[in-house]
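pls design
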């Protein structure tokens, strides 16, 4: 195809190219050695396809060069130009800036000017911690200065660079921090984060007053109201906690008596994750720590009667023409491995007087689910079958209310993106990636950058929207239903994998959405669909990024730099979208004007008819 040319504008087939693309024909990879990491940028058709980071030490080169440029009084953009204009330079035996300090003295003896004798000191200890929030994150201080001719430090040249994991930690001044926080609060207030919203709302009270309470047995009802049930804040509870809380509350258990473990943090994991004898994915390993938190933190404060950690084998399914809706087997069986870990040397549950309920559950077969829940809770609650059935219905009603609320808010956010012409990000992750301790704050950081954040569990399912995105394919017979993934994925037995594939199709078809995939290290169910997700998104010409190695390590600096690279790519992509909208509008006006003139020529002249 060639280029279309219109008055005052040239519209090309290809988007504006990256500078590197202007220097080389069809490059596939760019290696960027930065200040804190090395970025591997994969390209396809001149566009950024993916960004990977080597999180090992890069010696702080970027920050060090910036400090040198500032001390020389040279704009960092001209630093290379000035360097290449030099007629001579000192010889250093080390390439790493961290080993150069010992050679400064010998360079001074050779008569080099003070500006070429930079000194620096890096500090990263308890004295550099940021105390502007409860995280108390470690920071790295890089102090840079030059010496005067008499060998003493030149105080006027001193600079301090702060390497921090968030914007607030980038300063030591409280007033500046408050200014930074106010700016961030303004951005987050106008930028919805459905991942964070879902992660908060899922633990709240299920809804109306109990409807299935013990009925004619006041003593039984009174006994239930005194029970305390602990539930680990893990796995599919991030998607289906309302189902279980609604069930329990309808039986007369007050919401305050449902005790969830604390949010996932590094401290929680370190304090309770040592019991594991196997090495699965991080979400499975952290489950041990959550049960430990219930037994060793929550239970001593106010005793628990039981810990409820169900083995959810089958999840509810919305998609059509799928093979199954099974949960990940590692996730499903983790409650069993947790039991083994806490009873290996001694039965800690029995020692503490806490029952451990870990029933196998099928959430997709309601009749079977009723029987499973009755068997699990009947002895403790003194349940009758009819009462249990009513509680099951109350639980599903609470789940439906939660889902409807989240998807309604998601539709409002999506409509706002379309109205304002902005971009949103769909995080392709499993329900437990709503946990900020497992998603490493990626959703929050994207929100700070100004992008509305959705997840595969929070996308709206309104019929008009689905028809707009998938209607042509349904009518052409390519798929049987908007919620059909059989055209791209045949081995559709895993519920979360199926949902991830469908969400990728959704994001690829919506002009205001881009996809960012989240996957944990050792996730066996995600591995077969990596290429499927990538192809679905890339065929639409939409940018695609992925974090496929999330685990207990949280390299905050590397994640932040990677997100900044994603932000740059998305802003260029948004500029192209805006340019295309302007072009389409202009073409529409030209076509309208041309049609008006053509009609004026072809329509008969009324005055001529009257004269005749």
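designed seq:
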């Amino acid at each position: 195809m060639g280029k279309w040319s219109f008055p005052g504008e040239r519209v090309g087939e290809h988007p504006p190219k990256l500078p590197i693309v202007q220097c080389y024909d069809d490059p596939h990879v760019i290696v960027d050695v930065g200040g804190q990491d090395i970025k591997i940028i994969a390209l396809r058709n001149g566009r950024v396809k993916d960004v990977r980071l080597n999180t090992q030490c890069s010696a702080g080169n970027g920050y060090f060069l910036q400090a040198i440029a500032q001390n020389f009084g040279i704009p960092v953009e001209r630093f290379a130009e000035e360097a290449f204009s030099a007629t001579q330079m000192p010889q250093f035996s080390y390439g790493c800036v961290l080993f150069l300090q010992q050679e400064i003295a010998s360079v001074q003896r050779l008569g080099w000017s003070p500006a070429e004798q930079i000194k620096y000191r890096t500090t990263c200890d308890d004295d550099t911690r940021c105390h502007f929030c409860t995280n108390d994150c470690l920071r790295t201080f890089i102090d840079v200065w030059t010496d005067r001719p008499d060998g003493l430090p030149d105080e006027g040249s001193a600079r301090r660079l702060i390497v921090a994991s968030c914007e607030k930690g980038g300063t030591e001044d409280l007033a500046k921090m408050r200014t930074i926080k106010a700016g961030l609060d303004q951005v987050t207030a106008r930028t919805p984060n459905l991942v964070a919203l879902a992660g908060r709302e899922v633990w709240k009270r299920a809804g109306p007053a109990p409807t299935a309470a013990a009925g004619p047995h006041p003593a039984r009802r009174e006994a239930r109201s005194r029970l305390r049930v602990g539930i680990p804040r893990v796995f599919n509870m991030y998607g289906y906690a309302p189902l279980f809380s609604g069930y329990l509350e309808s039986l007369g258990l007050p919401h305050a008596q449902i005790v969830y473990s604390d949010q996932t943090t590094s401290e929680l994991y370190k304090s309770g994750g040592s019991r594991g004898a196997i090495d699965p994915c991080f979400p499975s390993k952290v489950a041990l720590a959550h049960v430990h938190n219930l037994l060793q933190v929550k239970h001593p404060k106010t005793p628990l009667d039981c810990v409820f950690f169900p083995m959810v084998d089958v999840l509810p399914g919305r998609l059509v023409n799928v093979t199954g809706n099974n949960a990940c087997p590692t996730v499903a069986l983790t409650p069993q491995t947790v039991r083994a870990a806490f009873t290996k040397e001694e039965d800690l549950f029995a020692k503490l007087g806490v029952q451990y309920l870990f029933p196998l559950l099928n959430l997709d077969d309601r009749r079977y689910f009723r029987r499973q829940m009755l068997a699990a809770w009947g002895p403790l609650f003194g349940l009758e079958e009819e009462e249990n059935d009513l509680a099951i219905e109350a639980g599903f009603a609470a789940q439906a209310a939660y889902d409807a609320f989240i998807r309604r808010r998601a539709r409002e956010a999506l409509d706002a993106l379309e109205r304002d012409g902005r971009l949103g990000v769909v995080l392709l992750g499993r329900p437990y990636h709503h946990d900020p301790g497992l998603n490493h704050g990626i959703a929050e950081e994207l929100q700070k950058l100004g992008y509305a954040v959705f997840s595969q569990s929070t996308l709206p399912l309104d019929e008009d929207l689905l028809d707009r995105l998938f209607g042509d394919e349904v009518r052409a017979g390519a798929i049987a239903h908007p919620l059909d993934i059989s055209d791209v994925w045949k081995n559709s037995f895993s519920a979360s994998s199926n949902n991830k594939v469908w969400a990728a199709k959704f994001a690829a078809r919506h002009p205001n959405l881009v996809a960012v995939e989240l996957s944990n290290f050792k996730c066996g169910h995600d591995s077969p669909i990596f290429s499927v997700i990538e192809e679905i998104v890339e065929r639409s010409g939409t940018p695609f990024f992925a974090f496929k190695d999330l685990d207990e390590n949280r390299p905050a600096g590397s994640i932040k730099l990677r997100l900044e690279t994603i932000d740059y790519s998305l802003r260029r992509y948004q500029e192209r979208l805006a340019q295309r909208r302007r072009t389409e509008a202009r073409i529409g006006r030209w076509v309208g004007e041309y049609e008006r003139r053509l009609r004026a020529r072809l329509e008969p002249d009324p005055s001529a008819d009257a004269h005749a």
